UniProtKB/TrEMBL annotation:
Keyword line: Membrane, Transmembrane, Transmembrane helix
A GO-annotated cellular component: membrane
UniProt organism field: Christiangramia fulva
Signal peptide limits: none
Pfam family, one: EamA
Claim: Transmembrane is one of the keywords in the record: yes
Domain EamA: 11-140, 151-280
PANTHER family, per database record: ACYL-MALONYL CONDENSING ENZYME-RELATED, MOBA-LIKE NTP TRANSFERASE DOMAIN-CONTAINING PROTEIN
Bilayer-spanning residue ranges: 12-32, 38-57, 69-89, 95-112, 124-143, 149-169, 181-201, 213-232, 239-259, 265-284
The protein, known as: EamA family transporter
């Protein structure tokens, strides 16, 4: 009985983590600042919170070699590019299209990983790739660069490529260092890279939107990602990834509730194809593991 209760608690915290991370879609649409400005202040606040957490929990910030540090910094560049392109995608379309086009990253990872890490390629990924392409087409059937939705889908897919590359790059680092330490260094990297924002943007609009920025930095970035990392203590990374496939559903539901954004039928159908491909990819990885 106690074991069942603990398992239920673990599932609950994992779903809370995914729910909190899903708020990025609604907040990305709600905050009217330029995405570069949003990401700068998001990382600035998150870096302070993460540093306090690291000092409180006495987590080591030591990096063993310059090679590892360079990989972590490069991961930060990719992570920042992922966030910025994702937020531009959100502002050009809606939460459903932004999230679903981003969520092509697990299948994109399956294609990139064998090339970059010299691992074996599973032929089923070709079929999953076709499924994802069909889903992307349904998200924006009008292939026109003057169509904001089409550009949003392209940016969402580009964002997923950056995210996939960052995750592949961090694969070996996760086994060496605490996940919070890696997040801290990458967030600081993004913050430093975007710091010129202070000289080229007005501070008054930031003050008027400090509440959603604070929620984005603390709830979405710090609490959401920390809870998700902690879930790896109770579930395998693959199992956690399978369960996190519900993230677009949470994001779309939050958009319906808070932004009154109801996705169109074609978006829903495209989303079903993409999420199906993601779930199948995760199940194949889980079975292989």
């Amino acid at each position: 009985m106690a074991r069942d209760k603990q398992y239920f608690t673990n599932i609950l915290f994992l779903n809370l983590a995914v729910l909190f991370i899903s708020t990025s879609g609604v907040l990305g649409r709600y905050i009217t600042l330029d995405p570069v400005v949003i990401i700068f202040y998001r990382t600035l606040i998150a870096a302070v919170v993460f540093y306090i957490l690291i000092r409180w929990r006495k987590i080591s910030l030591k990096i063993e070699s310059k090679r590892d540090l360079l990989k972590i910094i490069l991961g930060g560049f990719l992570f920042g590019a992922h966030w910025i392109t994702y937020f531009y995608s959100l502002q050009l379309s809606n939460v459903a299209i932004g999230l679903l086009s981003l969520f092509t990253y697990p299948v994109i990872t399956a294609f990139l990983e064998p090339i970059l890490l010299k691992t074996s390629f599973n032929k089923i990924h070709l079929a999953l790739g076709v499924l994802v392409l069909a889903g992307i087409y349904l998200l924006s059937p009008d292939l026109d660069f003057e169509n904001d939705y089409f550009i949003a889908v392209i940016l969402g897919v580009i964002s997923s490529v950056f995210y996939a590359l960052r995750n592949i790059l961090m694969k070996n680092q996760i086994s060496k260092y605490n996940g919070t330490t890696l997040m801290f260094y990458q967030i600081v990297t993004i913050c430093i890279c975007l710091s010129p924002v202070l000289f080229f943007s007005e501070f008054t609009p930031v003050i008027t939107q400090w509440k959603p920025l604070l929620i984005l930095a603390i709830l979405t970035t710090c609490i959401g990602h920390t809870l998700f990392l902690n879930s790896f203590r109770n579930f395998t990374v693959t199992a956690a990834s399978i369960m996190s496939s519900i993230q677009p559903v949470y994001g779309i539901l939050l958009a319906i509730i808070f932004l009154d954004e109801v996705p169109q039928l074609m978006t829903i159908l495209g989303g079903i194809l993409i999420i199906s491909a993601v779930v199948i990819e995760n199940l194949v990885s889980y079975k292989k593991a």
